[in-house]
Amino acid sequence: MTVTGGTAGQLVPVLEDLLGTELPIRLRTWDGGEAGPAGAPLLVLRNRRALRHLLWRPDELGLARAYVAGDLELDPSSDLYELLGAMARLVEQSSSVTLRPNPRDLLGPQGRRLLRTAVGAGMIGPRPPLPPEEATRVRKAGVRHSPQRDRTAISHHYDVGNDFYRLVLGPSWVYSCAYWPTGTDTLEAAQAAKLDLVCRKLGLRPGMRLLDVGCGWGSLLLHAAEHYGVEGVGVTLSAEQAEGARERIADAGLGDRLTVRLQDYRAVDDGPYDAISSVGMAEHVGADQFRRYGTTLYGLLAPGGRLLNHQIARRPNLPGEPYRTSPFIAAYVFPDGDLSPIGDTVSLLEQAGFEIRDVESLREHYARTLRCWVANLEQDWDRAVKLSTPGRARVWRLYMAASALAFEENRIGVNQILAVRTGPDGDSGLPAARAEWLGFQQGPAAPEAPESGAPSA
Questions:
Q1: pLDDT at residue 36, as a whole number
Q2: Superfamily assignment of 152-438 in CATH?
Q3: Boundaries of every domain in the chain
Q4: Which helix (H) or strand (E) segment is 93 a member of?
């Protein structure tokens, strides 16, 4: 271990004593002290408030609050992904250790040492204010997954500025996993390939009626209308997304064929549709609402119609192990969001009446997509901060980079499920072979898009 004194030199030995192992990171404190394993990624504590965040919430949420508030820094000379991986190991190591012992525990030598260090480092004190980016207002907006609370939760995540999202996502303005066939080198080309993949799986043809649930900024609707000749309706709960999508549709001269509504999917009543796409939306539905989600979409499809459900999935619980959502994600990123195992999603769609015809995992594709988004954000960091807030930009950097690691390490996945509402005679309307229906009525090859400025990961 390298030690250069200061508060870090006092703090690290005590933490390692508590954990019973070497820290996976080095610490640098506000007084210039540095301690920890040589060569380990570096975490910078800018002031005593960073320690108070951790005292009051000694887990990933405490670390996140300190970072979002600007009291803790991720050292720019350390690899971001290596540092986040080390922080995750630190959280795991500390999960069985309390940094707030009972008073009786302070009577022993270890307790007295901990107390002296805590007092000397300025850890003892009131809880620091919560960063304003935390989704506290969502919890006050009524019953979980009621229409009002869902609108508030969606607004928290998506109504943070269309220009901010355009900077992060690039010109494609697509906020879901891209598709990287061999030889695809740019984010824009990969997103165009994903949009085309969805359209081909849905078997879109001129004159069809498409419903895009959670339509975002309208990229899929535009692609489907321009390349496949469909008429489309998009629904979203984000006012800013709806405004941005309508502007893009008007600019493309497609206002006579495409409509975007600020509407809950549960309120859509103008079926039947020939095809329904739901890309990156079902994570917001809620586990207790998913059966209703499936039944609603089934009822909106014409017989023979197809649903393409593109959704992030978590790994199943081990026996006796409860499901725990990330406290950081729940508090800052996707309030009220739920991830379900792919098997549960398939079963619930079947219970709603669908026949499942295809499941494709895109896990590695999402990791690469997220790394591109992080690169876009970092390359234009100052503008991103001006378009939102310093805290919001930090939230997005942290969650996107951590999510990339989660996909790479197979802790979460993402899948496209193609489901069909079969006709009265059981006809699915699909060609006999998967290779045939995947290319069925294929539109023109998506053009190679210009570089977005983000390197391929």
A1: 93
A2: Vaccinia Virus protein VP39 (3.40.50.150)
A3: 2-121, 152-438
A4: helix 80-94
